[in-house]
Amino acid sequence: MPSSRADDVLLGPLQAARHAGLGPEAVADAIEAGLLQPAGHTSKGTAQFTARDVLALADSVPAPIPGLHEARARLVEDLVQTLRSQGTDAWARHGGTRRPRTVVDWAPGPGLTVEDVRAQLPVELARAETAGRLLLLGPVGEAMHWAADMAAPNGGVLIAVATTGLNHDDEVAEITVLDIHSNARLVNTLVRPTRVMPAQATRAHGISDDMLASAPDWNTVHPLVTAATRGRHTVAYNAPFARRAIHASYEASNLPTDALVQRDGWECLMDRRAAWMATRSWIRLGGPRRTQPSAERARDIVISMQRPPMSA
């Protein structure tokens, strides 16, 4: 009997589970075991399956498939040992009971990409990745590789600001820009705001109106900051806060915002650090509130993030 168009409709994993009347984990088991083969992929790489194959699967999948997760663990251990034998520090984490998943991470190194590791997967682990049961370079590994990119020559610059307060219109009162790779101070200056420094802000960071009286204003400082960050990744420990304060300084000085505020290349170190530490908690930077020691402390964190968190 010729197939109907409905039989040839492509379904994603969750759609396949609903179409077959199976749980998502049963479908993942079938994919990992090779009982359900992808017929295509979306533009983002998500596997798709024909409705015909999904319906044929409905009555044939034991739940769960015995020995599947144990076999994956053994193959992952072999993969990790292979990567280590090639000179790459690699490790795996197995987690989850309702939704078991294995994450393989490896330290930043010259040229080893996700595609390089994927090319070494045996067919069973390739199926596990398709099933969402194997993740190559998880959040911890991604954070480590990001840190290595930021610390590379001409990679990232780190901005730290002290402000007149915490509101959306509070301005920059001090700014430091560090080259993450070399630790060179590209900009390090007080900035005279257009408003009086509140006593509460002075108590927080120690910057007073007397200290700011002879400091350059934002009109003088912003070209230096723009030049120091041009063509680089702009990193700040709390990037939304730093970017907002810089934007407020432009507005208070009646200056049009330039590429420094408008560009999409801002990176939030606080978010990356939380991913590296596998936590959802907001982690304070700590240390002195002046911008040079804050920037140096943040740079130290970027450098340490190139290693696994347990060894940093």
Please explain how this structure is put together:
This protein starts with 9 loop residues before the first strand and ends in an 8-residue tail after the last helix. It has helices at 13-20, 24-32, 51-57, 68-85, 114-118, 123-130, 139-151, 199-205, 209-212, 218-229, 239-252, 259-262, 269-276, 291-304; strands spanning 10-11, 40-41, 47-50, 90-95, 101-106, 134-136, 156-163, 172-179, 185-190, 233-236, 266-268. It contains 14 helices and eleven strands. The chain has a five-stranded mixed beta sheet, sandwiched between helices. The protein has a three-stranded antiparallel beta sheet with strand order 1-3-2.
Distance between the termini: 63 Å
Q: Architecture of the largest domain in CATH? A: 2-Layer Sandwich
CATH class of the largest domain: Alpha Beta
Q: How many structural units, i.e. domains?
A: 3
Question: Major β-sheet, in short?
Answer: 5 strands, mixed
Share in β-strands: 15-25%
pLDDT averaged over residues: 89
Quick description:
The protein is α/β, with parallel strands linked by helices and 312 residues long. It has helices spanning 13-20, 24-32, 51-57, 68-85, 114-118, 123-130, 139-151, 199-205, 209-212, 218-229, 239-252, 259-262, 269-276, 291-304; strands at 10-11, 40-41, 47-50, 90-95, 101-106, 134-136, 156-163, 172-179, 185-190, 233-236, 266-268. It folds into 3 domains: 6-57, Multidrug-efflux Transporter Regulator, Chain: A, Domain 2 (Orthogonal Bundle); 68-137; 148-304, Nucleotidyltransferase, domain 5.
